[in-house]
Amino acid sequence: MSLELGARVAERDVDASFEINTGQTVALLGENGAGKSTLLAVAAGLLRPERGRVVLDGQPLLDTDNGVDLPPHRRGVALLSQDPLLFPHLTVLDNVAFGPRSRGVPRRDAQQQAEHWLSQVGALDLAGRKPGGLSGGQAQRVAIARALAADPRLLLLDEPMASLDVEVTPALRQTLRGVLADRTAVIVTHDVLDALLLADRVVVLENGRIVEDGDTRVVLTRPRSRFAARLAGVNLLAGTWTGDHVELDDGGVLFGMAAEPLPQPGDRVVATFKPHAVAVYRDLPQGSPRNSFGVRIDELEPLGDLIRLRTEQLSADVTLQAVADLDLTPGTWAAFSVKATEIDVYRLA
């Protein structure tokens, strides 16, 4: 394994570990406060856990059991946080050249490398400026160039495009895609497109614990955690498979189509279905073969020609006309109904 990362940080209620193969990019997903940035800080050497182990290419960077704790500058790890943290007294060019210079690269060569990476992120025209004269998006592009110029063995990216202008993001995402193709990296993101285009694998954190780990496309098309389901834009309900239906954790019953590998009676399962598969009524339909749920509408979110109705657990996509006809507003009680053929049931590993 290229990276072994594990940490227990009691103060932040984080206890998680995972491994990454050489050249693999992992997207670390989860709600705010789930522990994503904590794990990155442990890997970078900025936070010492009560117990932890970080091994990169066979070299222990942190091993609390054996008293190993290399300082950040000796780890070969670059962390790009949400704050660019550029050196205010240096020009953009010298900020980016700082990494190569720290490795002993001659000044002229380091500046050429800096110009290359600034060009890659579309910021070469900023080379002579000081950080104080940059916008937030410009500073973040420079910070990405600086991280890449350092040529780290491990690249850690904490929402690297969160502050970028929408016009810049697609081009920079393509740049990162090329850079990360043969590099070991961990990227924290809330953008499903970042995960799909940049990551080979997805690890989902919930309350400081790993609740899902798998191939990116599998996780985002067959999610087994609420966060991944919400990110993928699908509804998810958990329960126990009886052989022909799901007994939901909240006591309800759900009929759906079992997917491979087929669950066995007693298996823990999740059932997923898309918001557009949900029919919405003001009252529970009588005698309908569909699965029906009484819900309270919490939020109406415009989605182009549709409106997404959000409840505590479920979402449904309906037309603006349907919203008007049913007189749906936040606080309204309604019924969501979905056919069994629209529901996929997956066994939890």
TrEMBL record:
InterPro entries: AAA+_ATPase, ABC_SmlMolc_Importer, ABC_transporter-like_ATP-bd, ABC_transporter-like_CS, Mo/tungstate-bd_C_term_dom, P-loop_NTPase, Transp-assoc_OB_typ1. It comes from the Bacteria. GO terms for molecular function: ATP binding; ATP hydrolysis activity. The keyword Transport applies. Keywords: ATP-binding, Nucleotide-binding, Transport. Pfam families: ABC_tran, TOBE. SUPFAM superfamilies: MOP-like (SSF50331), P-loop containing nucleoside triphosphate hydrolases (SSF52540). SMART domains: AAA. PANTHER family: SPERMIDINE/PUTRESCINE IMPORT ATP-BINDING PROTEIN POTA, SPERMIDINE_PUTRESCINE IMPORT ATP-BINDING PROTEIN POTA. This is ATP-binding cassette domain-containing protein.
